[in-house]
Design goal:
Elements: E1 2-8, E2 16-22, E3 30-35, E4 40-41, E5 46-55, E6 62-70, E7 80-88, E8 90-96, H1 97-100, E9 109-118, E10 124-134, E11 139-145, E12 155-162, E13 173-178, E14 181-186, E15 192-197, E16 204-209, E17 220-224, E18 235-238, E19 254-266, E20 270-279, E21 282-292, E22 316-328, E23 336-341, E24 345-349
Parallel strand pairs: 4-10
Antiparallel strand pairs: 1-2, 3-5, 5-8, 6-7, 6-9, 9-10, 11-12, 12-15, 13-14, 13-16, 16-17, 18-19, 19-22, 20-21, 20-23, 23-24
Length: 350
Amino acid sequence: MGTYTIHIIPPQGSKTTTIFKVEDFVLPRFEVTLRPPPYSLATDSAFSFTVCANYTFGQPVKGNLSITIDNTKSRKCQTRITRNITISGCTDVEETAAKLQIVDCNVYSLKVNAVVTEEGTGVEAMASTTTSIQRRLITLKTLYKDQYMKPNLPFTLKVRASRPDNTAGVGVPVELCAGGQCTNLTTGVDGLITAVLPNYQSVSVRMKALNSRVNMYSSEYYQTLSHYFSPSNSSLLIYAPEETLKCAEAGQSTSQHILPVLFSARDQPTAAITVQVVSRGSIQYTNTQDYQLPSGPLPISTEHLVEPLPPPLPGTVRGVINLTISLPDTASPIVKVSQFHPPTVSSGAR
């Protein structure tokens, strides 16, 4: 213990001197942790905090807990509640929203301080935290959307509803409006809303969660749509798989995959379609093949349609073809697949 001086003299250059002090360090005999709820809402009727006091070797501490909850307001809205209780290890402390004046005083955060005094010794340890009072229960964010709204083909949009702790917003009623039509949807167990827009004239999508309450902000979503123009109303759309593609089997250099492609064509029973796979800045696979373009149903779920799918435009056919692509081992972890039929249509998916 004491003060030490270190001198460093390099072969060339000036001397450098550093002084430092070594002192006794006593490990804490016990520590206190304070855990707030995952998130707190302005509509909650009460707020619970978990306080734990444990020795460094894991055993619970017995003593007195003094916990203070402050609503961080001032003047007549200032509320600071202190409670003293006996603790042995962990305990939950709850206080009502009414006493903390959450609604009346528009409280946005709570500051909590916990002090544990060890029984018999009077040794103290403390912990503190600040928790925000959320006023938006649900956030709507884009998970996936087609790059373009294309003639004769539907546009797919996937939006995730999440809670303040980023868990899925399950069973949330949502109103969706696009192309002059509105419909009510409900998020699934994964918090997802899948919307299929069949109207090429749609220029934007609006959503609003329908479960907003007093003293809470509404949850809204807005997305503009980019349109792909084709004089012949012909277009291609890769129906990209949601799951991760499997790599090649042991001993094989490539893996085969089926890629559904939605198409709209005018007076064209066949087409030479080129598929190109790009990864790591280089072309990993390319192939051109003739395909029949028969009219047929599209692989979309009618329950996701915002409005009924209109019939194909006069003189056009609409359907789906399955393209086979070969992915080499070097095409990872992300690939961009492009397919085109020059000169009228092109499409891409990542």
